[in-house]
Write a structure and sequence with these properties.
- The complex is a heterodimer of chains A (283) and B (478).
- Helices cover 12% and strands 42% of the residues of chain A.
- Chain A is built from four helices and 16 strands.
- Chain A has a 16-stranded mixed beta sheet that branches.
- In chain A, strand 12 and strand 13 form a beta hairpin.
- An eight-stranded mixed beta sheet of chain B has the order 4-3-5-1-6-7-2-8, sandwiched between helices.
- Chain B has 15 helices and twelve strands.
- In chain B, helix 1 crosses helix 5.
- The chains are: A mainly beta (283), B alpha/beta (478).
- The interface between A and B is large, with 66 and 63 residues.
C-alpha cells in the first residue's frame, strides 16, 4: 500500500472522488479481473451490472442491487435493437435502520423493454413495484406500488401513458435522448473518438426528462477513456473505459455510486437479489 | 375529561375511544381532505428557485410555492435528522420525546414513547385515515418497515438519496395512480436528498490546485455559485461552541479555498434538483388522478444546510442556515396561492396540530409548544401566531464539560437569541438588520434589556415542556 493510501485509510475517509483505482483499493473491483467482450451485431448479449455505494469511507460501503441488460437479437447494421432490462435495488436494507425488521427484505423492482430505431430510443414499456420477500412467498409485490407505463418519442415530445392518463413532455427537437442503460451499452458498442461530444437529454427511469445535457469523451490516465454524461438537474455520470474501450465502471454522484460489470467484481448478490436476477421479465 | 396516558393509549388503540377529543367539525370520511406530506432532508431554506435563488432550478417545488402559502420563518425543532423527525411526527420537542441526539443506535433512548402518538397513529385512530409512509424514517431502534400507525410501501436507502429516492417517489406515484378508496389518506413521502452532499463531502474534501479541472461541469468555473455574503468568520463574533463544531468539519480539514466552496454549492444544488425531479413524479400523479382537488400538500425539510454560511457545511449548529427550513402548504381553493407569510414564527412542531385541524380532529394532548397553522392559512393570513419559536440542539456530551453543540436558539420577530446548556455563551442577533447573523449584540450594553427579555422568554418556554424521563439531569430539566 502506498503512503498516501495508508494515510487515507488511517483517517477512515477517502477524501478523493472514486475512480477505478480507488474502487480496486476498497475492494469493489477485483484487481485481477478483465471486462468481458461486448456485444456483436445480431448476436444475443447479456450483462449484469452491480451497484456499489461508497459512503466516502473505507468502511460501511455496500453493494445494493443490480441492473441486468439483455439485447436478445444484438444490434442490426442499421442500429435497430431491442433492449430488455431489470433493475433491482435493495429497499429497506441499510445501515440507518437500527431496529429489527419484522418482515422480510424488500426490493425496488424496475423492468423495462425498449426499442431503438437507427440507434435512437423509440418506444418502451416499464413496470415498477416494491417487492417483499416473505419466506414462503418470495417476490410478493405490494400491489399498490405496481405501475405500468408505456412511452414513445416523437420529434418534439415524449409521450407517456400511465393507466388511462396520457402525459406529453416537450423535448428539444433534434437532441437525442439517452438513458443510463443505453449509455452502459453504448460505451461497449461504439469505439469513441476522444473528441466526441454531443448534446443529449437524459431520460431517467424512462419517465423523467432532463435536458441541456452533453455526452463527451475525456482522455484519462493509463490509456483509459472517460465518457461523461451531464445534464441539468443531475450530478454527472462518468463511464470509465479501458484501453480496449470496455466499460470498467460507471460512476455517479461525484462520485459515490458505481455500476460495475459482473465480470469485474467478486461480489455475490443476496439471495433475494439473485432471485430477481433469475426471474423472467413479463409485462 | 382528564388526559392520562391510559386515555391516550386507548385512543390510539381503539380509534373512536376518545369521543370527547373529537372535534365536532362536521367532517365525514368523504369530506376530510387527503394529506400529502413531502419531507426532504437537509434543504437550505433558500435553495428553491421560486424563492429567488438563481443557482438552482426547482420547477416542482416552485409549483407548490406558486399554488400555496410559504412561511418565511420556520425553525426546525432540532438541526439534525433524528430528533427533528421525532418532533415532526409527534408535535413534541426532542426534550419531550427523549429522542434528543442524532444517533439511531442511542442506547438510552427509544422510539417515540407509547404515550406520544405519531401523526399516523392519531389520524388513523381519530379520523379513520388511510396512512401511508414511504422513505426515510430514521427514528432510533426502528426500521422503516415497522412504523407504528402507517402502512409502509417503500423504505428506500435511508442514507442515500441516489439511488433510493427514485424508488420511494415511484412507490408514491404508483400508490396514487392505484388509489380507489373513499377513505381519506395521509401519505408521507420522505426523500433523502439533498442529504447526499454529506457523502459527497467525504470524497471531495482535499484541496488541490487542479481540483476543479478534475470535475466535469456544465458551467465554467466563473459561473459557479457565488459565496454567501456571510461566509467570513469573525473571530470576535464566533462562539467557542460554534468554532469547535466548524473545525471538526471537512472543509477545515481540507483547507478549502473559495472555488472549493463554490464547487460544493454547485454539487449541493444539483442534489436539490435531483430531489425536485422526484417530487415532480409525485405531484404529477396527484394531478393526473384528480386527487389534488381534495389534497393538502405540505412540503418541508427536517433541517437546513450550512451552504458555506459562516464557513459551515451540513448541520448540527444554531445559525439560520441549519435551523431554518422551507415550509409550504398548497391546497388550491382552500389556501391562498402564491403567498409568503412573513409575520408568523412557526416550527416543525406545528405540523401535527395543523394536520389535525385540516382533518377535523383535536390534536393529541400535551402539545404545549405546537400551534395549528390552520388559522394563518385559511382565516387570517399573515396573522402572527406566537411571539417566539425555539430550536434545540443536543449532543451526546450534553452533561459533560466538553459538550459543544448543546444549546437553544429562540427567535422573536426581530431578534434571535442563542445560548448553550451551561449558559457559558450567549449570542444575540438583530435579524431584521443583520439577517446573516454577523454581529453579536450580546456583549453590547445597549441590548442588556433585550438579552434579559429573551432569557426570560426562553425560561418561560422551557417551563411548559414536559421533559422526557430519558433525559439526563441538567440545568434545563425543569
Amino acid at each position: 500500500m502506498r503512503p498516501i493510501e495508508r494515510e487515507l485509510k488511517s483517517k477512515g475517509i477517502l477524501r478523493k472522488p472514486l475512480d477505478p483505482d480507488y474502487l480496486k483499493l476498497i475492494g469493489a473491483i477485483d484487481a485481477d479481473s478483465r471486462p468481458a467482450a461486448g456485444p456483436t451485431a445480431r448476436q444475443p448479449w447479456t450483462e449484469t451490472f452491480h451497484l456499489f455505494c461508497c459512503r466516502g469511507s473505507w468502511t460501511q460501503n455496500f453493494f445494493t442491487g443490480a441492473l441486468h441488460l439483455h439485447a436478445p437479437n444484438g444490434v442490426s447494421p442499421d442500429g435497430d435493437w431491442i433492449l430488455k432490462g431489470k433493475k433491482m435495488l435493495h429497499d429497506g436494507l441499510n445501515t440507518n435502520n437500527s431496529g429489527a425488521l419484522t418482515g422480510q427484505p424488500a426490493v425496488d423492482r424496475f423492468d423495462f423493454e425498449a426499442t431503438y430505431r437507427k440507434g435512437e430510443l423509440s418506444t418502451w414499456k416499464t413496470r415498477q413495484a416494491i417487492v417483499l420477500h416473505h419466506g414462503d412467498h418470495p417476490g410478493q409485490e405490494i400491489s399498490s406500488t405496481v405501475l405500468i407505463k408505456t412511452g414513445s418519442l416523437s420529434s418534439t415530445s415524449l409521450i407517456l401513458q400511465i393507466n388511462a392518463h396520457k402525459k406529453m413532455i416537450p423535448r428539444p427537437a433534434g437532441i437525442p435522448v439517452r438513458t443510463l442503460a443505453d449509455c452502459l451499452i453504448g460505451c461497449r458498442l461504439r469505439p469513441l473518438d476522444p473528441d466526441f461530444s454531443k448534446e443529449v437529454c437524459l431520460l431517467e427511469e424512462f419517465s423523467v426528462l432532463k435536458s441541456s445535457g452533453r455526452l463527451y469523451c475525456e482522455p484519462s490516465a493509463d490509456g483509459m477513456l472517460t465518457v461523461v454524461l451531464q445534464s441539468r438537474g443531475s450530478l454527472p455520470f462518468e463511464f470509465w473505459l479501458n484501453e480496449d474501450q470496455r466499460l470498467i465502471a460507471a460512476l455517479q454522484g461525484s462520485f459515490g455510486t458505481a455500476w460495475i460489470p459482473s465480470a469485474l467484481t467478486r461480489h455475490t448478490h443476496s439471495e433475494f437479489i439473485q432471485a430477481e436476477l433469475d426471474r423472467e421479465v413479463t409485462f | 375529561m382528564n388526559i392520562t396516558r391510559r386515555n391516550v393509549l386507548q385512543g390510539i388503540a381503539a380509534g373512536s375511544a376518545l369521543p370527547a377529543l373529537a372535534r365536532a367539525a362536521g367532517l365525514n370520511a368523504k369530506s376530510r381532505p387527503n394529506i400529502l406530506f413531502i419531507l426532504v432532508d437537509q434543504l437550505h431554506h433558500r435553495a428553491i428557485s421560486a424563492l429567488g435563488n438563481a443557482n438552482v432550478h426547482t420547477p416542482n417545488i416552485d409549483r407548490l410555492v406558486h399554488s400555496g402559502t410559504s412561511f418565511e420563518t420556520c425553525q426546525c425543532a432540532a438541526p439534525v435528522c433524528i430528533p427533528c423527525r421525532g418532533s415532526l411526527l409527534s408535535g413534541r420537542m426532542p426534550s419531550e420525546t427523549g429522542i434528543w441526539i442524532n444517533t439511531a443506535h442511542q442506547k438510552s433512548q427509544g422510539k417515540l414513547p407509547r404515550d406520544i402518538p405519531n401523526i399516523g397513529q392519531w389520524l388513523q385512530a381519530q379520523a379513520s385515515y388511510e396512512t401511508i409512509y414511504a422513505g426515510k424514517y430514521h427514528l432510533p431502534h426502528a426500521h422503516t418497515y415497522n412504523i407504528p400507525g402507517f402502512e409502509v410501501i417503500a423504505s428506500g436507502l435511508e442514507h442515500r438519496g441516489d439511488p433510493g429516492d427514485s424508488g420511494v417517489a415511484r412507490a408514491c406515484e404508483a400508490w396514487l395512480y392505484n388509489h380507489q378508496s373513499d377513505r381519506p389518506f395521509m401519505m408521507v413521502c420522505s426523500l433523502v436528498n439533498p442529504h447526499d452532499v454529506c457523502h459527497w463531502l467525504s470524497i471531495n474534501t482535499d484541496h488541490s490546485p487542479d481540483r476543479l479541472e478534475r470535475y466535469p461541469l456544465l458551467e465554467s468555473v466563473a459561473d459557479l455559485p457565488q459565496l454567501p455574503p456571510n461566509v467570513e468568520i469573525d473571530s470576535l463574533v464566533e462562539s467557542e461552541r460554534h468554532k469547535a463544531i466548524r473545525t471538526e468539519q471537512q472543509p477545515t480539514h481540507g483547507g478549502w479555498q473559495e472555488n472549493d466552496w463554490r464547487y460544493y454549492l454547485w454539487a449541493y444544488y444539483r442534489q436539490v434538483e435531483m430531489v425536485d425531479a422526484e417530487i415532480g413524479r409525485v405531484l404529477d400523479a396527484l394531478e393526473a388522478t384528480g386527487l389534488d382537488e381534495n389534497t393538502l400538500v405540505v412540503f418541508t425539510s427536517d433541517h437546513g444546510e450550512g451552504c458555506g454560511e459562516h464557513q459551515m457545511v451540513r448541520k448540527g449548529f444554531l445559525y439560520d442556515s441549519a435551523i431554518r427550513v422551507p415550509l409550504i402548504f398548497s391546497f388550491p381553493g382552500k389556501i391562498a396561492e402564491g403567498k409568503t407569510n412573513s409575520d408568523a414564527l412557526v416550527g416543525s412542531l406545528d405540523l401535527m396540530p395543523t394536520f389535525c385541524e385540516f382533518a377535523g380532529v383535536q390534536p393529541p394532548p400535551g402539545l404545549n409548544h405546537a400551534q395549528s397553522l390552520y388559522p394563518a392559512l385559511t382565516e387570517h393570513p399573515g396573522a402572527p401566531l406566537r411571539d417566539c419559536v425555539v430550536t434545540e440542539n443536543n449532543d451526546p456530551a450534553r452533561n459533560k464539560p466538553d459538550a459543544t453543540a448543546a444549546g437553544r436558539a429562540l427567535r422573536t420577530k426581530q431578534y434571535k437569541y442563542i445560548t448553550y446548556f451551561d449558559q457559558s455563551v450567549e449570542q444575540l442577533f438583530d435579524i431584521e438588520t443583520d439577517p446573516g447573523e454577523t454581529v453579536n449584540l450580546a456583549e453590547n450594553s445597549r441590548y442588556r434589556a433585550v438579552i434579559q427579555e429573551h432569557r426570560d422568554k426562553l425560561k418561560n418556554w422551557a417551563s411548559a415542556l414536559t421533559p422526557s424521563p430519558l433525559l439526563p439531569s441538567n440545568p434545563w430539566r425543569i
